[in-house]
Amino acid sequence: MSEQQDFLRQTVEHLDIKQVNVVPLIEMMGKTAFQARNLARAAEIFDEMVNDTDCGVILTLAGSMVSAGQREVILDLLRANAVDAIVSTGANIVDQDFFEALGYRHYQGDIFANDDQLRRLHIDRIYDTYINEDELRVTDDTTRVIADSLAPGAYSSREFIREMGRYLVENGLGEGSIVRTAYELDIPIFVPAFSDCSAGFGLVAHQVANPDAHVSIDSAKDFRELTELKVKHGKTGLFMLGGGVPKNFVQDVVVSAEFLGYEDIEMHAYAVQLTVADERDGALSGSTLKEANSWGKVSLAREQMVYGEMTVTFPLIAGYVWHKRNWEKRTPRRWAKLIDGKFPVKVAQ
Amino acid sequence: MSEQQDFLRQTVEHLDIKQVNVVPLIEMMGKTAFQARNLARAAEIFDEMVNDTDCGVILTLAGSMVSAGQREVILDLLRANAVDAIVSTGANIVDQDFFEALGYRHYQGDIFANDDQLRRLHIDRIYDTYINEDELRVTDDTTRVIADSLAPGAYSSREFIREMGRYLVENGLGEGSIVRTAYELDIPIFVPAFSDCSAGFGLVAHQVANPDAHVSIDSAKDFRELTELKVKHGKTGLFMLGGGVPKNFVQDVVVSAEFLGYEDIEMHAYAVQLTVADERDGALSGSTLKEANSWGKVSLAREQMVYGEMTVTFPLIAGYVWHKRNWEKRTPRRWAKLIDGKFPVKVAQ
Amino acid sequence: MSEQQDFLRQTVEHLDIKQVNVVPLIEMMGKTAFQARNLARAAEIFDEMVNDTDCGVILTLAGSMVSAGQREVILDLLRANAVDAIVSTGANIVDQDFFEALGYRHYQGDIFANDDQLRRLHIDRIYDTYINEDELRVTDDTTRVIADSLAPGAYSSREFIREMGRYLVENGLGEGSIVRTAYELDIPIFVPAFSDCSAGFGLVAHQVANPDAHVSIDSAKDFRELTELKVKHGKTGLFMLGGGVPKNFVQDVVVSAEFLGYEDIEMHAYAVQLTVADERDGALSGSTLKEANSWGKVSLAREQMVYGEMTVTFPLIAGYVWHKRNWEKRTPRRWAKLIDGKFPVKVAQ
Amino acid sequence: MSEQQDFLRQTVEHLDIKQVNVVPLIEMMGKTAFQARNLARAAEIFDEMVNDTDCGVILTLAGSMVSAGQREVILDLLRANAVDAIVSTGANIVDQDFFEALGYRHYQGDIFANDDQLRRLHIDRIYDTYINEDELRVTDDTTRVIADSLAPGAYSSREFIREMGRYLVENGLGEGSIVRTAYELDIPIFVPAFSDCSAGFGLVAHQVANPDAHVSIDSAKDFRELTELKVKHGKTGLFMLGGGVPKNFVQDVVVSAEFLGYEDIEMHAYAVQLTVADERDGALSGSTLKEANSWGKVSLAREQMVYGEMTVTFPLIAGYVWHKRNWEKRTPRRWAKLIDGKFPVKVAQ
C-alpha cells in the first residue's frame, strides 16, 4: 500500500521541555496581562503543588495530547514525581500512548486532506495528524489479548491499564511510554470511560468470544479507588489538561468521599485547567473553577484557568515547573500500592 | 434554611416546541448564510433521518441540557418515535432528569453569584442555574438504593438506567421524565461514563457497603450492546447535542462492528452535530464530521455541523422536525428488546 | 465567463421576520438557561428601548450581515422607526447593501471551494457566500463617480453615504436598500472606518485623479456629529450586532461629550450586543458591557451580551421586537436633520 | 484619591524577548501538532519575510497589545528593521503607547472587580488591566493641543501620528515608545479608524473649538498613501496581530492598486495572522487567509493562521525571529520618506 506511505512520511516528534529553560519567559509573562498572565499564574500554582510535599498531584488528560507530541512532557513530569495519579480519556492512554508503546508512530498530516481518500487508504485523521488504521487495529487486538489472559471478573480501568503496563514489560516493549513508566513507578492511571477508545474494541471482542465468563470494566470501581486515594491521602491538587470526563471525575471525588460519610474532606487545594472551552454554553469542560467551588470541589484560594490550545500552553507550564526543580524534594508516592479496597474507619463516627 | 430559599425562587421551565411552528423560519434561514444556513441544513438532515423509516436514529446528549429547560424538547422527540436510542453523559440523565423525576427542580441563577456563599448554602451552580445540593444527595442515595436492590453482577449502564425507570414506575414518580418515558417506550439509554455523575456516588457507597458481592457497571457491556444494535439493525443516523464521550462512543460503534468481523457495516448514513467547540484544538468534541469520515465512521453524504449554543439551536431544529410531522410514519422501534447479547452469524464468514 | 456562472447560481434571499411570530418562542427561552435565556433577555431589553419613546436607538453593524441575508431584518427595524441611527463597518453598507442597491446579488457558496480557482474566476468568497468581483468593481467605481460629483472638501462618512442615498433615488435604484431607505427616513449612517471598504477604492481613485482639490472623508467629523446627536438628544440605547469599530465608536460618544465639557451626559441606558467573541483575549469586540461601565459608557441596569452567531440570533431578537409592535408608538426621529455642527450651550458652564 | 491608588499598584511590565532564546523550543513545536505546529510555521514564515530583503514587512495591530505588556516586543522588531510599516487600531497607538509615552502606566487589575466602583474611582478596565482615567483625559487633551498647533487641512492619520512623534521628541518625552521610535526611524504608522480612540476626543474638541478652519483626518488619504507604498515598493508580507480594520485595510491595498489601473500588482507574498477569532461567523477577523486568496489579496504559498491569545503567541513568534537574527541583513527602509502623493507612471498604459 505504497500510496498510504506517501501520506505517512513525517513523524510527530515529542517535545522535550528539558532543552529550554522557560522560567525567565514565564516570569516576564506574569508581569503582563490576559492569558500570558494567567499562564504564568497557573505555572506558579502548579509549582506550588509540586513544592508542597504533602500534596498529592493528579494530572488529567483530555484532547489528543500524546498524538500531538506531548508524551515526553508528561513523562518528564512522571519521572520528576510531580504527578501522583493520572485520570485520562482512553484516546491518550490506549489509542495513542499504548499504540506508540507497541512501536507505532503518529504522522504530520494536512487539515485540508480529502477524508474520503484517507479512509480508502486506511489513514485516520486527527486534525493535522495521521494514524495508520491497520496499526490501530493491532492495538485494539492487543487489548483483546490482554483481556483474554486475565481471570474473569470486574476490573477497574486502573487495574486493566496496569496489566497493559505489565504486558509491555514482559514483552520488552514501550520503554518511555506513559503506560509502562506509570506501571514501573506505581502511578495509577484511571480512564473512567474506558470503552470509549481502542480498548473498547478489544474488550467487546473479548466479551463476545467469551459470553459467559469474561473481563468487565467496572467504572464504579474506578471511582471507588480514586475516592479511596482521596480519603487515605488527604491534600490534593489538580493539573487539568482540557475538560471532559477526567475533569468532572476528579473533581467529584471530594463529594464522593463526603457521601461515604467522611467529614472534613478537603476540597482540592490547588487547581489549574488548560482549555479552549468557553463557559458560556454551560457545559462542564469550560465551567470555571469558581463554579466548581459552589459544588464544594475546588478551593478558591489557588485556582487558575488558562485559555489556550494545550500544545502551546502545556509545554510552557510544565517547562516552568521542571526547570524550577522543586520536584527534586519529592519521592515517588506509589499510590497504586495504596489502593486495596479497604476504607479507613471514619473519623467522625 | 431560608437564606437558601432566597436563591431558589425562579424555576427553570421546559421549553415546548409544539407551541410555535418554526418551519417557515428555518426554511428562510436555509436561504441565507453562515450558521443560520447550517442550522437549516441540519434540520433538513434530521428530518430526512426521521422520514427514512429504515433508519435508526440515535440521539447523543452532552452539556447540561435537562437543567437548561430542554427536557420537554427531548421528550417530544421520544414520543414522536423520532429517536430510537440515547447515548448521554450521566449529568443529563441522572443528575438532571432522574433528579427532576424524583420531584426536584432547577432554578434560574446568576453567573456573578458569590460561589463561596453558594457553597455554604448548599447550592450548586451550573453557569446561570442553581441546584439544591441536599436534593442532589437524595438523588445519589436513590441510585444506591436501586443498586442495593439488584442481584450482584456486571450491568451495562443501560440495564441500570432501565432499573431506574422501573423504580420510577413502581413508585409512581417521574411521569414525563426521560428515564421513565424511555423505559416505557423501550428506548435504550446508554451512559458510557456512568460513574461520572450522581449515580457514581450511589454506586461507590453501594460497593463500599457490599465489598464482596455487588453491582458493577461494565462499560464494555454498554459498547457491546450498542454494537449489537448496529449489527442487527443496519442503517443509522446520529443527532448529536454536543461532543464528548457520547459523540465518540456512538461513532465508534461502526468500527467496533467491523472489528468483530462483520463486513459491509454501513457508516452512519446521516449525522448532525450541534456544538460550540472548535476544531482547531484537535479534540474530538469539535472535530468535523468530515474528519470522522476518514475513520470510516460517518458518511460524507449527509452530515452537518452547527456552531451555536444548544439551548438556541436545539429547539429550532427539533421544532422544525416536529412540525414537519414526518415522524407520524414511524412506529416505536423498541430497541431495548432487540438487545439480548447474541450476535447474529457473521455474513462474511 | 460561463464557468463563473456555474458558481453563481443560488442567490442569498433575505429573511423576513414578519412571517413568523416568534414571541411565544422567545418568552419560553426566557424561562430556560444559558444563551437562550440571554437571548430572551436581550430581546426584552431591545423591546424596552423601542418602547421608551424618549430613547434614541442606535444600531451597530459589524460582520457581514447584508450578504448573509439579514438586509430585510434591518429594513424592517428602520421602517418601524425602531432604529434612529446606524454605525457600521463599510462592508455592510457599501460592499453589500449599496452593491445590492445597484442591482447585484450575493450567492450561496461552499466553504471548501478552491480559493485559487475562485480567484481566477473573479469570485470573492465570504465564508459560504460568493460575490461577482466584476460587479464589486462597478460598486467601487460608483463611489468614485459620486466623489467626483461633489464639491471638494472634508465630508463625514455620514454625509457621503447620504449622497449615495441621493444617487440611488436620482437614478431610480435601490428601492428597499438600507442606504436608500435611511436616506428617505433621514436616518444617519456612520461608517467610522469608511476607507476600509469598497468606497475606499473609489475615493483613492478620486483623490489620485484630483490631487489638488478633492473629497476627503473626515473621521473626526463623524465622531463630532455622533457626539452632537448624543448631546442634543440625551437618552440612548444600543443594539450592537458584533463588535469592532462600530461598538467602540458608539460607546465612546458618551466620553466624547463629557470631554467637551458637557456635564450630566447619560451613559447609554440600554445596551445589547450579539457576538461570538470571547472576553478572554482582552479585545474590545468581546469585552463585556460591565467592563464598558467602568469606562462610564454603558449603564449596568439594562445590558445583555448574547453569545451566538448573528444570522441565528439577530432574526429571533428583531422578530420578537417587531411582533411585540411597541414600535407602533414611535415616529421617525429624522436625526439626520438634527445634525448642523452647532453644539448647544453647555448646561454647566 | 487614595482609594484609587489602592487599585493602581502593580504596573504592567513590558516583556523582553531578547532575554530567552526560544528558537529551539519553537523548532520542537514545529515537529508536533495543532497550534504549536501552526505557531512554529508562522514563526518560520515571518522569519522568511524578514530574511527576504526585497520584502516590505507590514505589521498590523488590533486588540490591546501595548497595555498588555507587548510594547517592547514591537519595539524590538522596529529596532531590528523587521517591520517597515504599521497599521493599527487607535487604542494601541494613542490610548496605550502615546499614553505611556507621556509618562503614564498600565496596572494589573482583576476581572472580577466591581465595575461600578471602578467607574466612581475613575479607573477604566481592559479585562485584567486598569487605567487611570484622569491620565487618559490628559492624553486626549494632548492630541487636541497637537491638532491646535497644525495648519488647518486634511491629514492622513499617518501624518498626524508623525506629528505626535515630533511632539514627543520636542518635549523630551516617550523615549522607547512606538510612536517616537517609528518617528525617528521613518516607519509610517497608519490608523485607519483614527477617531475611534483617545485622539478622537481631542480632535472633536479641536473641531468644535475651531468650527471654520481645522484639522481633518482623511481616511481616504491613509488608504491612498498605503496604496502608494505598495505600488512603489512591490513585494510585501504581512504579520497580523488580530483582525479588525487593520487586517482588512492592509489586505485591500492590493485591490486598491489594481483598481488604479496598475497591472501585475503582487498579492502579499507572505501572511501570518494571530487570532482567537473563528471563521464560522463569516466575519473578517477570523476569515482564513485562503479566503483572502479568493479576493486576490494574499498568496496561498506562504500563509498561516495561528489560533491563540496573542500575549502568549506573539512573544514566542517575535522571539524566534529576533534570535534567528536574519534581521541583521536589513537596513531601515524609511518608508515614511517614500510617500509623496505622486504615483508612478503606470506600467501598463
TrEMBL record, chains A, B, C, D:
Can you cite an annotated GO cellular component? cytoplasm
Keywords recorded for this protein, A-Z: Transferase
User: Which GO MF terms are attached to this record?
Assistant: deoxyhypusine synthase activity
Looking at its record, which EC class is this enzyme? Answer: transferase
Q: Cross-referenced Pfam families, in alphabetical order? A: DS
Entry coiled-coil feature ranges: none
Record bears the keyword Kinase: no
Its domain of life reads: Bacteria
The positions making up the signal sequence are: none
Q: Which family does it belong to?
A: Belongs to the deoxyhypusine synthase family.
- Supply the name of the protein: Deoxyhypusine synthase-like protein
